[in-house]
Amino acid sequence: MKMNELKLIYFSPTGTTHKVVMETARSIDLKSVSFDLTIKKDLKPVAKFAPNDFALFAIPVYYGRVPALFLKYLDLFSGNGTPAALVATYGCREYEDALLELKTEVEKRGFKVIGAAAFPAEHSIVNSIGARRPNKADLKEASEYGISLNRIIKKEDSFASFDLKVPGNTPYRKYGKNVLFPKADVSLCTECSACAKICPAGAISLDNPKKTDHDKCIGCMKCVRFCKQKARYVSAFKLNMAAKKLTKVCQSDKKAEIFL
């Protein structure tokens, strides 16, 4: 089958998932079009992909699951037997049901999954866990994953017979409760509203960026990472508690897992 375009659909609040998916995409010999779902979207259909397009869906793992906000935005896309591959990044604990859930949800929308991969990454809350990952070795594996995908789409005339198996269980693991809500240090905040503009959940008001809507906040830490004034932060007490808990269950030397 002569392929048309590579469609990149990703959610990457702190940038690690973006690094992995872009490294994978570089090894796929197709012109690419990106859909960054980290930027808050109006819920209007964006695209219906053709059978000869190739879609690459990429997410960070939240609580062993696909982020609920990504699933909400996933309804903007539909395929027509369109081949697809998956990327999940996780903070060196476990990715649990995320790949299975992502595969199921993507295929519900008309795509056919032919490859999936889970990559360890720096933890979005406790940065010392998996620090500076994805590193060179991780990105090399992402590149090799892309090479394998490129080989498959060039070789196959039809993807209808693909039946990829990925780890995971149903019912899916329950989402945990977010307790790390970023706050604004009023002595540092200049009310530039940059945090409000980049918040993927729309949890920060443009008119009053010093406040965070706890009902909307997903704890992605994007506002904390990208505030130039260093005015956004989370409670030191809660952060220390989270660090103690996560250090016990996370392993910074986790390896990528690829399914083809």
TrEMBL record:
Family annotation (SUPFAM superfamilies): 4Fe-4S ferredoxins, Flavoproteins
InterPro entries: 4Fe4S_Fe-S-bd, 4Fe4S_Fe_S_CS, EFR1-like, Fe-S_Ferredoxin, Flavoprotein-like_sf
Signal peptide (from-to): none
Keyword field: 4Fe-4S, Iron, Iron-sulfur, Metal-binding
Domain 4Fe-4S ferredoxin-type as annotated: residue spans: 180-209, 213-237
Molecular function as annotated in GO: 4 iron, 4 sulfur cluster binding; metal ion binding
PROSITE patterns given in the database record: 4FE4S_FER_1, 4FE4S_FER_2
Pfam family, one: Fer4_9
NCBIfam families for the chain: ferrodoxin_EFR1
Name of protein: 4Fe-4S ferredoxin-type domain-containing protein
Organism: [Ruminococcus] torques CAG:61
